[in-house]
Amino acid sequence: MSVVYNLGLATRVPLGEGMTFIVGGRTVAVFRTRGGTFFATQAECPHQRGPLADGLLGGNVLVCPLHGYKFDVKTGLAMGHACGSLKTYPVELSDRGELLLQVEDS
Fold it and tell me: How many CA atoms lie within 13 A of 91 on its CB side?
């Protein structure tokens, strides 16, 4: 069963950056591309638990701030390394401009 969490106004997440949220007992990173699209992934890099919301975001490419590992923020797939892929979560914008994050209830 999935649960939808209202994370508040989308303007909380600056263009081209990420922000960490704690929802349902898990930590999730929400990203807003410079084009205004939102994506959500697990908050820590599977390599050495780097804080992904602090990483660099260029287009759909997220770069871990600790070791430069790259991920496709849309799919979570690792790019050019065997670190492992990221868990991704559906996130959408409500009619009122709020971020709605969907997670599977554990």
Answer: 30
Site of tokens 């909380």: 12
Helix (H) or strand (E) holding 70: strand 70-72
Look up residue 47 and give its two tokens.
């390599």
Distances 40 to 21, 60, 74 between C-alpha atoms, Å: 10, 12, 8
Write out pLDDT tens, residues 65-92: 999 999 999 999 999 988 899 999 999 9
Read off the DSSP letter of residue 64: -
CATH number for the domain running over 2-104? 2.102.10.10
* Structure tokens, 18: 């990420």
Q: Name the burial class of residue 26, with classes exposed (0-12), middle (13-18) and buried (19+) by CB atoms within 10 angstroms of its CB.
A: middle
* Residue 81: CB atoms within 10 Å: 13
Q: Which residues pair with 67 in a beta bridge?
A: none
